[in-house]
Amino acid sequence: MSCANYPGLYVHIPFCRSKCPYCDFYSVTATDQIEAFLSALDTEARLYRDQFPAFDSLFLGGGTPSLLDAGQLGALVASLRRHFVFAPDSEITIEANPDDITAEKLRLFRDLGINRLSLGVQSFDEAELRFLGRRHTARQTAAAIDLIRAAGFTNLGIDLMYGLPGQTLDAWVKTLETALSCAPEHLSCYQLTIMAGETPAPHETPALRTPLARRVARGEISLPDEETQREFFLLTANFLTARGYLHYEVANFAREEHYVCRHNLKYWTRTPYLGLGPAAHSFKAGRRWWNISSVAQYCSSLSAGKAPVAEAESLTPEQVRLETLALGFRTHEGVSLATIRERPGGDAMVEALTRAGLVRVDGERVMATLDGLVVADRLPLGFAD
Ligand code: SF4
Question: 158 φ, ψ to 5°?
């Protein structure tokens, strides 16, 4: 698993046709703001072009980038190509919802150089899709995938969600089997949570940020307990690896090494990236910054010629070390023993975690086992000062 030295470019398209009740990502349904947003985005790209002259990945995420029409998407990509250089073999991904896919839109994607699709499928079960408030049906997804293949796309990622209230392991296996019948090059399998996405503002209670979270808080529905979630995770990993998929990150699987998402890999390997658009995050030279989560404020900041940065932070060397561990333990490449040995007691901790079955050592690398991946976020705590 390698990652070129180029940074990656992420563009957050903060518009959706409607809000899904579980979603905590920043997006709005006021699509009349799209033109103003695109104009502001062009200004933002101009502000950063000297700092980030070239990329080898572009990820158009959101929100719902696929809802942009041909003129809007064409203008967006033209603006990015005007300000930045993309390496010839760049991975160019667009997130798309199945109900946006048409033969015409796929031709547009191809004409714009998009070579990877990340399809927000979530489930192949109609009742689950209704629960999730998705606008598409399983039948629409199947039709969309047929169109995608017919249009010649050979790098298709499918996003799925497990751990829904009342969902059985058998129902989840059925969804996985249906997904595999389309032979996707990539699968992302996320656990439904009520705290996914952005960090809540200090005055907000995280559990109440989404309609789904409020339903859980009112006791109308309950999510599976930790042990059941663990079963879902282990089943997913065993099911997909038994069918040849590479489990290269906690929630991500590639049909072959070649289909590992180059862009997302940059986040886990601390490779620099630039995020444009409201709420987008960036990272370079140990500094991290993120944009305002408001289309209106984003646009007004840029029309005044000012970068729409909400906050920035520079990590201390110890924070960098812990972040390297936290991100590394999420991936199948793990972390280096050298990083672990930067602090006294590292070897003893590796031994303890190995005895507990949570990590394994392979040469100079320490990797989380499957049981370790279940608690990947907590593993670095053992190595803290
Ligand atoms: S899940 Fe996707 S489509 Fe639904 S509101 Fe969130 S960003 Fe929009």
Answer: -120, 130
Beta bridge partners, 104, equal none
Ligand 1 neighbours by CB, cut-off 6 Å: 16, 19-20, 23, 25, 27, 62-64, 97, 120
Residue 62's domain is classified under what CATH number?
3.80.30.20
Counting residues of the chain whose pLDDT is more than 70, the rounded percentage is: 95
Index of the ligand 1 atom closest to the CA of residue 63: 7
34-48 vs 70-83: helix axis angle to the nearest 10? Answer: 10
Q: Calculate the CA dihedral of residues 50, 53, 58, 62 and round it to 10 degrees.
A: 0
Residues 205 and 111 in one domain: yes
How far, in Å, is the centroid of ligand 1 from the Cα of 136?
12
Ligand 1 centre to CA of 68 (Å) is 14
Q: Which amino acid is at 268?
A: W
For residue 74, which amino acid is it? G
Q: Does the predicted model carry a pTM greater than 0.90?
A: yes
Distance from residue 347's CA to the centre of ligand 1 (Å): 43
Give dist(CA 57, CA 94) in Å, integer: 11
Decide if pLDDT at 211 tops 60.
yes
The atom number, within ligand 1, closest to the CA of 97 reads 3
Domain boundary among 228, 244, 268: 268
Residue 334 region, left (φ>0) first, then alpha (ψ -120 to 50), else beta? left
CATH number of the domain where residue 366 is located: 1.10.10.920
- Read off the pLDDT band of 214 (50, 70, 90): confident
Q: What share of the chain is helix, strand, coil (3-state, %, to 5)?
A: 40, 20, 35
